[in-house]
Amino acid sequence: MEVYVDDMLVKSKKANHHVEDLDETFAVLRKCRLKLNPGKCAFRVSGGRFLEFMVTQRGIEANPDKIKAIMDMGPPTNINEVQRLTGRIAALSRFISKFVEKGLPFFKTLRKVKNFEWTKECQQAFEDLKTYLAKLPLLVKPVTRDTLYLYISSTPQAVSSVLVREE
């Protein structure tokens, strides 16, 4: 079960365990005297949007609408458009390897509020980002006893890490 403030998702590894998982969830809700709004509940759903992500049987995927919003953008021509771009990138940050490093040219332009300049470095980073967004990774839970690899990257500007299960 995944719970975020007032959003909840009950996802079972096997279909035949789902009723048991729901029973357990409802028992906890009753014990805590919490109520659900039937109009906002959906049952027997194999996938859908949850917290702006796409939850499927395979795992968690980036919301295609968020990707399309960036893919459809032209190069920013002012600070407001750069802010819009960085906000859209931030919404996908958990799917973007070395997110800070990839977005650094955009963040640097935000420092120059009066003299906006879209540099060649910004343009290259923008094109690279769009190429990267075309093949974002799928996020999945680790499987017990599988070997996991922790990759760490550091530069003078950022530190990032990713936990990977090779297939």
From TrEMBL:
InterPro entries: DNA/RNA_pol_sf (IPR043502), Retrovirus_Pol_polyprotein (IPR050951), Rev_trsase/Diguanyl_cyclase (IPR043128), RT_dom (IPR000477). SUPFAM superfamilies: DNA/RNA polymerases (SSF56672). It holds the Pfam family RVT_1. It comes from the Eukaryota. Residues 3-51 form the Reverse transcriptase domain. PANTHER family: PROTEIN CBG26694, PROTEIN NYNRIN-LIKE. This is Reverse transcriptase domain-containing protein. It comes from Sesamum latifolium.
